[in-house]
Amino acid sequence: MNMSDNDSVVYSDMYDYDYNSTCDQDPNLEFPTGSMVLSVLYYVLFCLGLLGNSTVLWVLLRHVKLRTMTDVCLLNLTLSDLLLAVSLPLWAYSSQNFESCKLITGVYQVLGFYSGTLFVTFMSVDRYLAIVHAVAAIRARTLRYGITASIIIWAISVTMATPQVVFASLEEDGNSSQCHPIYPDDTVHFWKLQRNFSENTVGLFLCLPVMIFCYVKILIVLSKSRNSKKNKAVKLIFIIVCVFVVCWVPYNVTIFLNTLELLKIPLAPDLCKASKTIMYAMNLAEFIALSHCCVNPVIYAFVGEKFRKSLHKVMGKYFGWSSGPSSHRDTTDKETSNTPVRSEY
């Protein structure tokens, strides 16, 4: 696929972040969002995300019995990340027609932000129930409730992304076409604020606090446990929280700063320079946030004992690799034991 600066779609133009209008005539304020470097980086994300998530999806569907809420949640998170990764190369051609523009907008909003963030939070809640309320939550963490919760998350994601899909359209800009929401003239300000407020509410004010609460409670329980796997579990929790913060908090901060800009709150004496800085930061933060779809398979699947043993068994079956001394039955017994740390990590 060839992507030139003239025919590629600028990734951050999906959001049309509306830098200060007084900067429009300044020839020095050209944002390098359509550069070949950024395009190459997105293709790297595509390759890594496709490899990691397709492997996880294959093992889950072919070699792991989906019996618990954890399994269903991991399946949906993997599916969300995989679809997002597969969609990344389509950005190069979303300028071709109106339909692809709307499709890419929907994929980005539903899969890239809302569902991915919500399923990561769902995983945190599931681990919290399994470890902090291990006995009481046995009946709640069933396959049935996992499917129900997943359907609700997908419905919420689609609902919150609908306005951006409805208003998504192509706009000619010289030799290129930019795909981003074009709002009615009399409600432009409202819809831009609504978009930013929705994303900040989900990512910064809802999911992040829930994750922190869940893992703090888990750490408290683990600190009182004498289980030999405690240290590994603590390290995994630390990695989960840190990766989520590194990937999504910068993105949400730039969204928040853009909201202040929309509200005409001065962020610096030089408004044009502030707008330019926000746009540069948005490009970097957006890339880092999307990279989360490549990291999730490593965190939630390959690091987990249950999935890792299933993967070893698959490798042994198809490639003749050693799958270790434990049998599949032993693995299942260990993962369904009454020890919370052992069963979840």
UniProtKB/TrEMBL annotation:
Coiled coil regions in record: none
Ranges annotated as biased composition (Basic and acidic residues): 327-336
Record-annotated membrane-spanning stretches: 40-61, 73-94, 106-125, 145-167, 202-222, 234-257, 277-303
Gene Ontology CC entries for this record: external side of plasma membrane
Gene3D superfamilies in UniProt: Rhodopsin 7-helix transmembrane proteins
Bilayer topology term: Multi-pass membrane protein
G-protein coupled receptors family 1 profile domain segment(s): 52-300
Family: Belongs to the G-protein coupled receptor 1 family.
Protein name: Si:cabz01093077.1
